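Posting for a labmate who doesn't have an account.
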Amino acid sequence: MRIPPEELMVDAAGAAEPQAIVDVVKEAVGGGATTDVLVLAHGWNETHLGATALYARLADGIADRIAGRDVGDRVFSALGIVWPSLRWADAGDVLGGGASLGDDVLQLHQAIGQSVDDAATGAELRALAGRLDTRDGRARFVRTLRHRLPDAAAVADDDPLPLALAHGDADELFDAVAEADDTAELLLGGGGPGDAGGSGGSGGAAAFGFPLLSPLVIARRLINITSYYTMKERAGLVGTGAVARLVAELRAQDPAVRVHLAGHSFGARVVSAAAASAGVPVHSLTLLQGAFSHVGFAPADVDRPAGAFRPALTDSVLGPVVATHTHNDRSVTFAYAVASRVARQVADAFGGPDDPYGGIGANGAVQTPEAVFGELEDRDATYAFEPGRVHNLRADRFVLNHLDIRGPEIANALLQSMLATPTQP
């Protein structure tokens, strides 16, 4: 396996240079020597250098797992998608706030700088940071922040844009996020309502009896949740755009090559969207702490349509779908939990498998008859992955946070997902 893998640069609109696609495909298929090509997609929090390092680490781990294993005549190569992702709070920064008012101001300014890629919007948000203790300041902050949100129709699938986020009263929105923070601390952090963190402060009412959070901390949460929906739209564009065309070009260059897709975080959405829309078969789909709805592969039910990526499972993927999941991943669990509380879903389902806003990286694929549940095992374990199944692997032992997907246990599961695929349709 080539280390580091070939890379394809994709822009925020989901486009890549046609010649660049042809060039990376030629390198990946190796003039016909390659039998299996792995396409990798990173998620949030990745720079170009970070994506390159991630791809090299995963490819290196797979090469190590291949060594000493009988893989027959199969020859593997990899290529990585590099696309513009936005900053999300680090796993340790999901709950709680700063130690002082000055820390909260600094952290909010940092969050704006890291996550808001429109300079004018970022400058206005920073200017409003000192006015969040007033109703007018909060209203203007929310109104400015909404400029980042995609059109609701663009993200109207399994985890739709909450109406309160798009159109609701600013103080009610601040209340909902404060409530979400406290509920998450109880359910994810193991603490009590008084452990929610932050420096306290005026403004941002504490609805439902929850203690006050600094409006500066709540504003940082809102930066994250609007980043989430921006990234959701962008990941879909990248998947249905350049990555779907890349998959089609791989099969056109060499119809015998097996194409495998794997993505981390929002990269899982990228590759799932590509599989659902490419119009050609892919041989396996591996989702590492995926940041999309846990009903993304589910059939239609009485109260909802079929999952957005159901066609990938039923029509496109010839081999297994493998999905790691754990509530150690606070980024996915909390992102969906905040959306759930903003949408006023029931608190006792918060972030879990019964939450309408639950994430696949937290709970695995649910309400999906093809899904089976198992465990992510050690680096030398053998799996019985089956084509046509979604294998949910609970990763509590080996995945300790959202970014912890570079270990040999992950590489082993990814390799065995590829080995479990049929030779050709």
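Reply:
Got it, the structure tokens are right above this. The longest strand covers residues 76-82.
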